Amino acid sequence: MTEEEKRREVRQGYAKIASRQSSCCGGSTSYEESKKIGYSQADLEGVPEGANMGLGCGNPVALASLKEGETVVDLGSGGGFDCFLAAKKVGQKGKIIGVDMTPEMLDKATENARKGKYANVEFRLGEIENLPVADNTADVIILNCVINLAPNKKKVFQEAFRVLKPKGRLMVSDLVLLKELPKKINKVLDPTSCVTGAMMKDKYLATIRAVGFENVRIDEEKHYDPDLADDPDATVQIFNAKTNAIETKKVSELDKKERQRMEETLKGISSISVSATKP
Ligand SMILES: C[S@@+](CC[C@H](N)C(=O)[O-])C[C@H]1O[C@@H](n2cnc3c(N)ncnc32)[C@H](O)[C@@H]1O
Questions:
Q1: Of the residues 2, 44, 146, which should be mutated to test ligand 1's pocket, given the most ligand atoms within 8 Å of the CB?
Q2: pLDDT of the residue at 26
Q3: Which of 26, 41, 104, 233 keeps 20 to 30 A from 35, CA to CA?
């Protein structure tokens, strides 16, 4: 499959998600789930209804230490949740540019901005591998759960580097692998799933360094939460070897073998927030 075909698949998937308001990772838009990945009650209550689509893996805005008047570019901005949080921090003198390649997501984000009367937030249609933003524009680039979906990950980091001003900061939250996913699972994962295309953690960090970033460091890392197995409402995606397909099941419905497989797979995935600076 070519890069363009992969992007088309992802775009079609997110067009559907935009219209049916569901999450990419089998998660949910509930306050509790969003709090688990780092959002506060105030974050969740302070944005237009529908902006939090439960599509993130962390809260890059919380860790980006934004200052008044800064310009922030959000790569793969979805419904605009992180853009609206960032908008409050940079104030009226600051500016937020959200970039997303799915027109339906852009429409949703634009409508959310209108509802919330955000004058300092702009959404642009475009690919994060070819950002529609001029060189040396941003003080900060944020990115939440998007790199895995991009077929050319190095290009995304190169573009982030180009668009940042000197001394600009990169702040990303993503899922990475601690061990390779079994090939048969990889083949059948939904193109919009947050682990489809996930990189090994070391390679992820090495790619950021390779394009020129300095001070690359992991600010937060979350591993598999064993409480998940005790949550009767939690759902997981399980590979069914008989049908060769991924099925969504409640954790409480899994048999012993499926539970073991779930735990093994989840232990190989970690959620990280990484910061880096442009020299
Ligand atoms: C998992 S969602 C994350 C949305 C948002 N960052 C959040 O945390 O709510 C991924 C978003 O990235 C967009 N996307 C995926 N690949 C992209 C690419 N190559 N270029 C631009 N946008 C992309 C999708 O359209 C989708 O809106």
A1: 146
A2: 43
A3: 104
Tens digits of residue pLDDT in 168-224: 999 999 999 999 887 777 666 777 877 888 999 999 999 999 999 999 999 999 887
Q: Of the candidates 72, 52, 55, 53, which has an alpha carbon nearest to the alpha carbon of residue 63?
A: 72
Give the model confidence (pLDDT) of 87-105 as tens digits.
999 999 999 999 999 999 9
CB distance 172 to ligand 1 below 6 Å: no
- Please tell me if the CB atom of residue 102 comes closer than 6 angstroms to any atom of ligand 1: yes
Ligand 1 pocket test, pick from 100, 158, 172 with the greatest ligand atom count within 8 Å of Cβ, gives: 100
Domains of the chain: 3-21+29-223+270-277 (3.40.50.150)
The structure's pTM equals: 0.89
> 139 CB under 6 A from ligand 1?
no
Q: Is 14 in the pocket of ligand 1 (CB under 6 A)?
A: yes
Beta bridge partners of 72: 96, 140
Place of tokens 């020129």: 212
* Alpha-carbon gap, residue 42 to 34, rounded angstroms: 12
pLDDT at 101: 98
Please name every residue paired with 175 in a beta bridge, in sequence order, or none if there are none. Answer: 271
Which residue's alpha carbon is at the smallest distance from atom 1 of ligand 1? 55
